[in-house]
Amino acid sequence: MKIVVLVYEYPPKIVGGLGTYAAEITRKFVMMEHDVTVFTMNDDQGSLPTREIWRGIEIHRPLHIDISDSLPDVVAEDVKKWGRGIQLFSKILVYNYLSASKLVNELIRKENFKYDVVAAHDWLSVIAGVTVKKETGLPLVFHVHSTEKGRTLGNGSEVISNIELRGAKLADMVITVSYAMKDELISLGFPPEKIHVCHNGVDPQKYNPDAVNQEDVKRLRESYGIGEGDPMILFIGRLVGVKGVDKLIMAMPYVLQQHPNAKLVIVGVGDMQEYLKNLVNAMGLNNSVRFNFNFVSEEERILHYAACDVAVFPSLYEPFGIVALEAMSMERPVVVGAAGISGMREVVTCSGEEQCGYHVNPSNPADIAWGINNVLESPEKRKWLGKNGRRRVLREFTWEKAAERTIALYEQVIKR
User: Fold this and answer.
1) In sequence order, what are the residues at sequence separation of 6 or more whose Cβ sits closer than 8 angstroms to the Cβ of residue 389?
2) How confident is the model at residue 342, as a pLDDT?
3) Angle at 153 between CA 149 and CA 155, to 5 degrees
4) CA 280 remoteness from chain centre
5) Closest Cα to residue 126, out of 88, 84, 170?
6) Residues 6 or more apart whose Cβ sits within 8 Å of residue 234
């Protein structure tokens, strides 16, 4: 199969889970002997190669031109207010139109490349996807990893929501990451008959507790001032409102009542950094909460999972949550937000013989603490939950399984 992948972030430019997903899934496609061509963003300086082969994947990164000065009269007010406003919207439009133009006019018409399917990821790339479909008639699969309404808890840009909906209506198939997301998409007007669910995965060879150097783990814990017997609670992710980190901090007094030596380590970057620091100060939790305001490498992330006793992700909205899988693969118990749109509810088994963590109400600090305290009851319990988590990953959530399921869906759409 010859696959075109349109995705906003791709190595070495990775912002979040979408970049990780794209890197892993395309690598698996190539290992399954499919041809993959990726169109992605260049960096702000245009310093990345505009065309290269990397790990058997052909990657195109159009050079950015700044069209933001030409946009104020033609874009809606809600785009101007959104994020970094017109500058970001300008970059996304340019990336989409230059990618579509290069793919259609150069690769297909001039160089006579043949493709079977186009896969566009999120609104960030679906503008190019629908353009390519119109120009070439190639089948379009629209992958939806999250929605504007969900990410902003209902306060986002109508323009972006409309782009998502148009993408869904013009695509031949929609693939999303959880059944919770499927329900959300249907509620937003996406055609139900087009929507298929394909869970994400993790690399259990990479995320393997047996492969970690214990001396490195000890050094990491010491760098945060965490003693040998102190329980380490870990949050890793973007520091934005939807991730519920503030509620996790508010849960700490309840945790400290039962585990006075517990330490919460928060790793990530985002617009809540100052607010979270002030919250810790106001609550008098400076001895119990540690911040690492950096985007850490994958190796460091693995080390943090290995060092912690429990990983906590109290998201208010989480279409899937690859971080929960990473922690489970590292044999760590997890406490996850399970209200509203939560793919983690499908990933984490919260009762019975295969339990690997706890579901909590992410809006309720006392409930988050209840989940953490249950995990920290005993070392034996933590070990049992962790082993169950890794077993579940190996059985259900590897990148091989995700790639096989995705290819099977692409085959369906090509046959049609």
Assistant:
1) 327, 328, 329, 331, 332, 333, 334, 348, 356, 357
2) 86
3) 70
4) 27
5) 170
6) 264, 265, 267, 304, 305, 307, 308, 310, 311, 312, 327, 332
Q: Is the pLDDT of residue 90 over 90?
A: no
Q: Is the pLDDT score of 81 beyond 70?
A: no
Tens digits of residue pLDDT in 209-260: 999 999 999 999 999 999 988 999 999 999 999 999 999 999 999 999 999 9
Distances (CA, A) of 101 to 93, 121, 297, 399: 12, 18, 34, 31
Number of Cα atoms under 13 Å in the Cβ half of residue 329: 26
Beta partners for 291?
A: 266
- Cis, peptide link before residue 11, omega less than 30° from 0: no
Neighbours of 378 (CB within 10 A): 9
The one-letter code for the residue type at 88 is: L
d(CA 220, CA 216): 6
Rounded to an integer, what is the distance from CA 123 to the centroid of its chain?
15
Q: Which two tokens stand for residue 25?
A: 């899934």
The sign of the torsion formed by the CA atoms of 310, 314, 320, 322 equals negative
- 3-class secondary structure, 289: strand
The C-alpha angle 211, 212, 213, rounded to 5 degrees, equals 125
Phi, psi of 317 (to 5 degrees): -145, 120
Nearest to 372 by CA among 276, 295, 288, 297: 288
Q: Which helix (H) or strand (E) holds 151?
A: helix 148-151
In single-letter form, the type of residue at position 158 comes to E
What is the C-alpha to C-alpha distance for residues 20 and 382, in angstroms, rounded to an integer? 28
User: How far apart are alpha carbons 128 and 6 in whole angstroms?
Assistant: 8
H/E element, 52: strand 51-54
β 2-6/35-39 pair status: parallel
Instruction: List the structure tokens of 124.
Output: 């960030």
Residue 265 dihedral angles phi and psi, to the nearest 5°: -110, 125
Radius of gyration of the chain (CA): 22
| Structural domains present in the chain | 2-201+398-415 (3.40.50.2000), 209-396 (3.40.50.2000)
The span from the first CA to the last CA of the chain, in angstroms, equals: 15
- Is 344:350 a contact under the CB 8 Å cutoff? no
